[in-house]
Task: inverse folding
């Protein structure tokens, strides 16, 4: 058996993760721009006494840290894509980076709340004109960053499948349909959140300057912290689901199960579908049939609108009983 050619049944688990995504270069450019504005806003918030401006700068700091981790994830995932120590490739590196970034966001949110509450009870003089000017510049920077990130992401398409005569199948499908750079999407949404925080800072400073509502400045700092915290919680939830191999929604599982049973006349005994990277999914299933079909036939119906790139199928023959 040593001379048996296994090439039709073997494959790599790179799934296009060795390719440089367009989001990597875009994110680096946005990091440089945002880091510069972050320093300006934090310095201006301290010098001019604006908590809302300082909160916006800290929010930008959280954004810079999160994007920095995303860039590291891009590079690490690409350079280690062919490392066989990763069972399903390096797709989850992006989720791990996002999880770490979410923890940092939560820390920044706590710092913002602490400083805002302190300023609420111990106000400091504010140089309104300078603070408003810097906040407006920050808003413009966020808008430019959003434009730089808009429409990003590369989709690399290729497909191949392998089946074992003993009832195991591995299928891969990179059709490009629904393939998205989730890191880039998260960065874009975070920039939008930054822009909203800048708007809050400008509103608070204008209210304090023209209406005498000085308390609005630290209150907007708290509001900005809440925005960061909500983004952090959402990111923690979505990334932890990937890291812990959370099943896809029950509706999609039921759809796959019903489609398999309807189209093949078999029964699905076991089914697992989970995410292994940005818009990449793996599936394992066990089917029982009195007239078993080749594994590739069952593998063909495992989709439910998901980009399933790896399928393992176990087929059992059920004896006919009178």
Result:
């Amino acid at each position: 058996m040593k001379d048996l050619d296994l090439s039709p049944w073997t494959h790599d688990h790179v799934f296009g993760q060795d390719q440089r995504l367009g989001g990597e270069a875009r994110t680096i450019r946005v990091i440089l721009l945002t880091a510069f504005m972050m320093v300006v806003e934090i310095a201006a918030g301290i010098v001019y006494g604006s908590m809302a401006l300082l909160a916006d700068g800290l929010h930008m700091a959280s954004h810079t840290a999160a994007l920095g981790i995303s860039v590291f994830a891009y590079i690490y995932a690409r350079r280690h894509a062919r490392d066989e120590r990763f069972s399903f490739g390096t797709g989850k590196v992006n989720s791990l980076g996002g999880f770490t970034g979410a923890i940092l966001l939560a820390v920044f949110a706590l710092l913002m709340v602490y400083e805002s509450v302190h300023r609420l009870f111990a106000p400091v003089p504010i140089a309104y004109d300078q603070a408003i000017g810097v906040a407006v510049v920050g808003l413009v920077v966020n808008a430019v960053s959003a434009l730089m990130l808009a429409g990003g992401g590369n989709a690399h398409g290729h497909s191949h499948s392998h089946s074992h005569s003993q009832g195991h199948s591995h299928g891969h499908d990179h059709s490009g349909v629904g393939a998205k750079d989730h890191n880039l999407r998260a960065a874009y949404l975070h920039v939008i959140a930054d822009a909203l925080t800048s708007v809050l800072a400008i509103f608070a400073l204008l209210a304090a300057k023209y209406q005498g509502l000085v308390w609005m400045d630290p209150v907007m700092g708290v509001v900005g912290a809440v925005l960061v915290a909500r983004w952090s919680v959402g990111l923690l939830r979505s990334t932890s689901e990937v890291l812990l191999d959370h099943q896809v929604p029950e509706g999609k599982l039921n759809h796959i199960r019903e489609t398999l049973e309807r189209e093949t006349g078999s029964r699905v005994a076991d089914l697992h579908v989970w995410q292994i990277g940005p818009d990449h999914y793996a599936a394992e299933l066990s089917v029982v049939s009195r007239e078993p079909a080749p594994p590739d036939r069952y593998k063909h119906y495992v989709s439910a609108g998901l980009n399933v790139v790896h399928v393992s199928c176990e087929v059992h023959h059920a004896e006919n009983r009178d």
Remarks:
- The chain has eight helices and six strands.
- The longest helix spans residues 92-121.
- Residues 11-160+179-243 form a domain with the Alpha-lytic protease prodomain-like fold (CATH 1.20.1510.10).
